[in-house]
Amino acid sequence: MGIGCSVRSSVPSAEFGEDSHDGLRAPSSGASPQVGQRPRLRPHRISATSSSSVAVTLYDLGTGDDPFPPESQQSSQAEETPPIVRRLTLTTVEITSHIQTTEVTVAQPREQPSQGVTTSKQSDSQKASQDATGQNPTSQPQSQDAPAGVKQPAVAPPTQPRPPKPPPALPDLRDFSENERKLLCGRVDADVNLRPKLIRVYVVSCAEDSIQERAVLRERVSPALKHHCGMLGYQFELVDMYEGVSDREVNDPEFLQAALREMDMCMETSIGPQLMILFGQKYGKLMCPTSIPPETFDKLLAAMDSREDKETLCTYYHLDNNSAPPTYKLQPIRCEEGKLKSSDWLTVQDQLLRILEERLDEESNLLKSALDHQLCRAFSHPRLQAGQVTWFTRRLLELEAHLADPLAPHFLDILPGGAVNTAAQQRLEGLVERTTSQLSEATCMANNIPWEGGGIDPQANPAHQEYLDCLQTRCQADLMAMVDRAVTEAQGEEQDHKPRFGKTLSLELQHQADFCRTTSPTFHGQDKLLNAIGSHLRAENTLPLVIHGADGCGKSALVAKIVELVPEWQTEQTVCVYRAVRPGTSHSSEEQLLWGLCEQLRLLYGPSTRKIQMEIDSLVQDFQYFLSRATSDRPLLLLLEGQLQGGEGGTSLVWLPTSLPPNVSMVLIVKTTDTETAPFLKSLPPDCFMEMSTLPPDECMAIADQLLKNNQRTLSPNQRDTFQAAIEKCPLPLYASIAAQLCTAWKSDDVDSSLPQDVVGLVNSMLDRLEAKHGAELVSAVARYVTVARHGLTESALFGLLLQNSEVLRLNKGTELHGVPQSTVLRLLRDLTPLLSIRVQESLVLRTWRSHSIADIIVRRYMGTKDDVRTAHVHMKEFCSRMVATEQEAGLHTHWGLVELPYHTFQTEGHHRAIAEYFLKFDWLQKALVAGNAIQIVSDVNMAARANPDNGDLCLLSALLQESAAALSYDGRQFCVHVVERLVDVMKSAAKDRFPAMCNMFKSASSSANRQFTTSKVFLKQVAPPGSSSEKSRKRIASEKAEGEVGNSVEPEGETDCDFLTGLFVVKDDPDHVISVSVETGEIRLWDVHMQTPVQVILGVDQPRQVCCINARHIVVLCNRQLQVYDLEAGKLETTLKGIMNATMPYFGIHDSDHVVALSRNRMYVNVINVTSGDVVSTFKAGEDRFLNSLLISSNGETVVCGDETQKPSPLLVWDLINRKLVHDLRIMGHEFNARLSAITNNGKYVASSCKELIDPDVCLVIVYDLKTGQLFKKLKPGTPVVSLALSEESMSAVLGCENGLVQVWDLQTGACRHVLDGHTHPVNTLQLADEGRRCLTFDPSHHDLSIRVWDIVEGQCLAVLTPDQPINCCQILADGERVVIGLQGRHDIITLELLSSTSSNQLE
Fold first, then answer.
1. Cis before residue 685, ω within 30 degrees of 0?
2. b vs e for 1218-1238, b when ≥16 Cβ sit within 10 Å of the residue's Cβ?
3. Which residues share a beta bridge with 420?
4. Which terminus of the chain is more exposed, N or C, with fewer CB under 10 A?
5. Do 790 and 849 fall within a single domain?
6. What is the end-to-end Cα distance of the chain in Å, rounded?
7. Of the segments 579-593, 679-693, 1098-1112, which one has the largest average pLDDT value?
8. Contact 13, 101 (CB under 8 A)
């Protein structure tokens, strides 16, 4: 049997258009139509066969030929076959679902009368329905009593529901960059930019002679730099390893190695300045080398005559064969009773130095002071940047004349006999000379100050005080300048590599890609398991796969390996969505986990405009909907790993489907114990489970060998046997990696080399050693703080916490220190590295425990009682409270503290105190949301509301935040607007008395200076009071929507997804009205912007798209491809201008009150048309066979600028409309203008155009010309492709919308970039400048970024941002810059937003 059908599509397609240079119709050559344009289609016919699925062939009815003839006819028709139109394979259901937008005639076989195939009467009905709804504006709906001969539609009863809508197409991932696609699709080779916003400056100096200078840096310079960096969104740390350190530690070689490691960290992590070098007159004491090469050591022994010297050297230097390569290592200096006293230690060091000095030549470079060691390490570091180093010299005058002064040895190298150590002075001079050559003497601050008996004493000597003040001023200025340069450069690099989707999702995906790339190489063995997983995924099972194993068996590494192998196991198009639930991650609740999943799936499977609500039931519905959207062309693998017991830090996963939709696979990797407790896992059949066994000992040994190799270490045969024996008892990768880290400290001659038998014993053994080294009080305090911190701790936060811990500060004798030495804490953190996970979150470097199992060990060891836990939480709460109260709002630590505060309040004082002090406090809530933690805050409020269902205020707040979560996660500054707009109905109702706290919040938001917009019309969805009938109705509608998600979705009353308003335009010389057009309904409306109501409606307009105002009464409208003049006051068509516009470039503008300027259809002419007669009265022509591709007309109507695409290099042609002549032919050799991306000032004085160099097309330029002289005025280099452009002579600014989502503001007077405006997550193709020249509206019409922003381009500030519930179809900033009018998808009306900004738009600097 067969089915035959013919189709005439009423839906426009961008694949077909009409335009040619000679005016003939032909398929467009890839040119994109204008926004809203519907190219005319040539008719085609469809034929199909089969009952369940059809092979659809599109015929060109112009010739009647099949573009896909049978193979037997292909040879004879090869030359005559028209271009391929389209070939589809559809099911009959899919054909039926498209009937709404397609006229279909079907010949139904008689032997199958029951087949549900649409008849010709039905197709007529569909067509009539389309005409009635405006889908075909040129047609009129037919009435039932139409004249004879008119086709009557056989319509169904009016009450019959509409056919289901076809599902929206999958998003085109080509809208994203290649790297963004890799991140979204879960590819391990995606580039990530997780560098923390950290500026870390290491102080290089001699410990003894720089005490006063280092105090100035710590106490005066560092606070100022912290504030300055905080305002820029960066964190500043000054590393002074000598603070609070005794002389013995300063001269300890182990301390020097720790200092060098910290300097390396500063060089590698600091975005801005890296080093601050302080030179005095002291070189410093020589240090015993920590290692001596074997060949050098043998020469030393051979050159010694003294047996005592040989014994001394061999006593303290032992050959360590565990080092790669082997070397002689300096041994810890001990005696039988323990460590030597400080005096004994110095005596032994002096003996060793004497021996080495006598026999080592300078070329060996082994004997150096700590200052020399640090500078040599710095100057050889590959990350050293000379422009990021500041240095100072200080000379005490007449110091050599006071060598007998007891304090003189602190500032000068003096021999035991009292003479100056000339050798040390020569070494110091060499260091200064090397520093001068490496850096620059011009960057050095040289200071000469008089000597005083007390050394440097600012209290007694004004010159010394002046010196320290000058040091502070110069150092502070130099560092701030370095910071500003570095931040500007870092922001540019960050934007070039920053994914163009939401900040939260962007960080989440980058963390996952980084984790998988770094962890996958650590995976060993388990080939059998990998093969089984691959077979399961290739088989397209409908059941999830659950892989379970013990703690430490390598589950995380397995996840990374699976992500790496997914394209090999399935296809390159497979999307891998991976999430890990571990301590300190951003998934502290199921809502957060689901939110991140839904956000990623929304971008992958669409529609991108779908609003995601932060409510668990709604999120589950969205999640299931997105899963159903997976296709064979874009299959989905969902991969979840981590803690599944629920609660804080875990999830129960009860919302996961037990039976998967088509094209979806799912793998869960969990602990074995979770399979017995997690409800979801218990509901799965046994066939779903695979066990991850422990590794063979040789595989564990391979893990250890790799770690030892990375640390340039190995093991002796006996030690290796010991290690292998321990591995056989505990063959876990976690055990192997921690044990290998401990073994890096083993030396080849160590006798006591043993390992505990399990991970618990291993971690406890490690902690025992750390307590012996650093003190039990310090280790326990650090462990507790890391454990109770919700998302991890930074170094700075840890220092602050330790400062308020009296147990740590108290010495054995009960005295108090002013603080814990920075070096002590840093050394402890480095020693804890094997147990810690270090990651970047919200631009901070946070430390958490490596795994749940390690965290459990810490809890059992240090937090055995409730008092221990509560004390740690109290300390955290007090520290965070003080931080939030004292630091600037821009400080990164303030953002961290705002999230931590309610959590620790809840842990110490319960829900009610946390709710009252934070969640229901407007000031705290606004500050926390602005800090960028919206999803975490919303999740916390939701959890608190579920735990306190009787708290009406909290439940109402929870409902509000759920609705606004998407907007607040985009930009928390919208909080005030959303509070005011969503609570209007509640505040007007009698029920408001039930919500006193929310009433206060509403009042605060209404009067807040942070409320950016105000409007008289409610345009955001109202929040229903908890328990009301409105809330129950909302839940019912949500449930119905979930049930009918594919097909008949439930739409809010009075709203549809049609584009009723497709364009908004200002009225010339009338600030109180705007004009809207609708291509869908064929309407032009004149609106009162104050009342937000139409005052004139013009119907029956043929696809109105663009409007230009002749005056306040008359407008010119682009209708389809004709220009028509309308009288707004009379509401009627006055004139249709002669000629047809070009299909893809319908450019026109106003010359004066009587004339319109338009680009001709063939693009060879610029026509001047009389608006009264409609005749062309004048024509400009570029030349023979020269085609124009743009048209700019100044607002005063005196100048027109066109781009010429024919000539090379392409010029800009400038005509004087008053005198009707060409005045400039602007071109630059070796450059090509993109004239379709250009702008002109209102008075026609300047024109700007995007431009590229022919020899290097990657170089993006914007050229600005002075049209009065025709001279090149400015050449701007944005450094990235430009997608939109606007000029303002009023503020002398060029505004550039860049491909990376940034908006750049350039000063036309200086040619410098004035501001870089960051906020949008996608390129903004729409820039609108208010007539006053200061305010700019930015908008992304592609709806990847659903928000609009208003900027002050003079100050570089974002004045307002708005993310409505529905996508914005069109927007317009009014001439005064004080109001913005928007049209939302599915709404017939306009919304006028008044800006509430303190910045005056009438004062240009």
1. no
2. eeeeeebebbbeebbbbbebb
3. 414
4. C
5. yes
6. 79
7. 1098-1112
8. no
**What is the C-alpha separation between 464 and 449, in angstroms, rounded?**
7
Token couple for 286: 């020589």
Q: What is the average pLDDT value for the chain, to the nearest integer?
A: 82
**Is 1318 within a domain?**
no
Please report whether residue 477 resides in a domain. yes
**Reading across the β-sheet that carries 389-397, which strands appear in turn?**
235-239, 198-204, 275-279, 389-397, 444-450
Which range, of 75-79, 196-200, 950-954, 1118-1122, averages the lowest pLDDT?
Answer: 75-79
Residue 1258 lies in a domain: no
Main-chain phi, psi angles of 323, to 5 degrees: -80, 145
Range with the poorest average pLDDT among 342-356, 758-772, 952-966: 342-356
Residues 929 and 874 in one domain: no
CA atoms within 13 A on the CB side of 79: 1
Q: Are residues 967 and 1065 in the same domain?
A: no
pLDDT, position 368: 92
d(CA 1099, CA 1085): 9
| Stronger pLDDT, 118 or 1157, i.e. the higher one | 1157
Which residues does 1043 contact at the CB level (< 8 Å), separation at least 6?
none
Beta-carbon count within 10 A of 1177 CB: 11
Angle 795-803/892-909 helices, nearest 10 degrees? 50
Backbone angle region of 1280, left / alpha / beta, with phi > 0 → left and psi within -120 to 50 → alpha: beta
Region 130-150 average pLDDT:
38
User: Are 484 and 513 part of one and the same domain?
Assistant: no
Q: For residue 671, give its domain range.
A: 173-193+500-693
Six-digit token string for 1104:
């109105």
Band of the pLDDT at 896, cuts 50, 70, 90?
Answer: confident
Q: Can you tell me the distance from the alpha carbon of 389 to that of 213, in angstroms, rounded to the nearest whole number?
A: 17
Residues 333, 383, single domain; the answer is no
pLDDT in tens, 823-861: 989 999 999 999 999 888 878 889 999 888 899 999 999
Q: Answer left, alpha or beta for residue 733, where phi above 0 means left and psi between -120 and 50 means alpha.
A: alpha
Whether the per-residue pLDDT at 108 is higher than 70: the answer is no
**Residue after which a domain boundary falls, among 646, 675, 693:** 693
Q: Indicate if 513 and 568 belong to the same structural domain.
A: yes
Are the C-beta atoms of 1047 and 1090 separated by less than 8 Å? no
3-state secondary structure of 583: coil
pLDDT score of 504: 85
Query: H-helix or E-strand containing 275?
Result: strand 275-279
Specify whether 764 is located in the same domain as 886: yes
Q: Find tokens 């030396």 and name the residue.
A: 747
Using DSSP's 3-state secondary structure scheme, residue 773 falls into helix
* Percentage of the residues of the chain whose pLDDT score is greater than 70: 82
Provide the 8-state DSSP code for 1346. Answer: -
Mean pLDDT, to the nearest integer, of 641-651? 57
Share of the chain above pLDDT 90, in %: 53
pLDDT at 466 exceeding the cut of 70: yes
Q: Which of 336, 366, 396 is the last residue of a domain?
A: 366
589: its two tokens: 């609740």
Mean pLDDT of 197-214: 93
Q: Is residue 1365 part of a domain?
A: no
CATH number at residue 874: 1.10.10
Note whether 663 and 635 are within 8 A (CB): yes
Instruction: Characterize 257-286 residue by residue with b for buried, 16 or more Cβ atoms within 10 angstroms of its Cβ, and e for exposed.
Output: ebbbebbeebbebbbbbbbbbbbbbbbbbb
Clarify whether residues 485 and 560 are in a common domain. no
- What are the φ and ψ backbone dihedral angles of 573, each rounded to 5 degrees? -85, -5
Contacts 24+ apart (CB under 8 A), 260-263: 260/373, 260/374, 260/377, 261/830, 262/202, 262/823, 262/826, 263/202, 263/204, 263/239, 263/374, 263/377, 263/378
Helix segments in 921-1043, DSSP class H: 922-930, 934-947, 952-970, 975-982, 984-988, 996-1007, 1029-1043
